[in-house]
Design goal:
Oligomer: single chain
CATH superfamily of the largest domain: CBS-domain
Strand content: 15-25%
Pfam family, one: CBS
Largest sheet: 3 strands, antiparallel
Number of domains: 2
Keywords: CBS domain
InterPro entries: CBS_dom, CBS_dom_sf, Diverse_CBS-Domain
Structural class: alpha+beta
CATH architecture of the largest domain: Roll
Radius of gyration: 21 Å
Helix content: 40-55%
Order of helices and strands: EEHHHHHHEHEEHHEHEEH
Number of strands: 8
Number of helices: 11
Protein name: CBS domain pair family protein
């Protein structure tokens, strides 16, 4: 189940097919170079480390038959051991719904926040986007780092300091994406992936029936589930 929220509250609630028919997804402006991860730098670094560990394991497989298991264990890097520990601790069950993958650590912005305050929060939390909520905690929009960096919004490098000050003191509601699609925790992950592809957004806020934030589902959450055991159950 999907909903669309804006400054006036919930504007739509229905299925993926209905959402696409009313233009709730396709009408969103596509933004280039959106960061596709919830914790952008860290995720890419982790994926690089994972590829390195796998490469090291493959390169050593030809010689493993001629050496004892103890020697192999001695050569095992601390990073590889850590990766194995993390994989072994996963809850081994099919993953089919948003609530199986979403981040439950809610990082949001108040609709009264300034651009400068938003930058500080995104930087401090190491995230590329954050839902925007009103005084009651209801979803009203989504602010991404890409929205803050659009060239047409930034003062030119030779602009007066007052121009930059005016930019940083803008309210986030002047820049955020609104209305913004959201998703219920029990929604099928495949349908969320479809909305992310259609809208170009890096993720979707997860909300309950009252429009209160319950979490956030990012593209990186889905990708991580695809490459990690147990595999994402996309064809069950």
């Amino acid at each position: 189940m999907f909903s669309v929220y804006g400054m006036q509250g919930r504007l739509f609630r229905g299925s993926l097919e209905q959402l696409r028919q009313v233009g709730g997804v396709s009408a969103l402006p596509r933004t280039r170079n959106l960061l596709p991860v919830a914790k952008e730098g860290r995720d890419r670094l982790a994926e690089s480390f994972g590829a390195f560990v796998e490469s090291e394991a493959n390169s050593g497989s030809s010689s493993s038959s001629s050496r004892g298991g103890a020697a192999d264990e001695a050569r095992k890097s601390p990073l590889s051991a850590y990766t194995d520990t993390q994989l072994g601790s996963l809850d081994r069950r099919p993953l089919t719904q948003v609530q199986d993958l979403m981040s439950k650590q809610i990082i949001s912005l108040k609709d009264t926040a300034t651009v400068l305050q938003a930058w500080q929060i995104l930087s401090e939390k190491a995230v590329g986007q954050a839902p925007v909520v009103d005084e009651q905690g209801h979803l009203v929009g989504l602010l991404t780092r890409a929205d803050l960096l659009k060239p047409e919004r930034l003062p030119s490098p030779d602009s007066h300091a007052l121009a930059w000050r005016a930019f940083t003191l803008q309210n986030v509601t002047e820049i955020m994406v609104t209305p913004v699609p959201s998703v219920a925790p029990e929604t099928d992950i495949r349908r969320v992936a479809r909305v992310l592809l259609d809208s170009g957004l890096p993720g979707l806020p997860v909300v309950d029936d009252q429009g209160m934030l319950a979490g956030f589902i990012a593209r990186s959450d889905i990708l991580r589930a695809v490459v990690t055991e147990p595999p994402l159950d996309l064809w069950g």
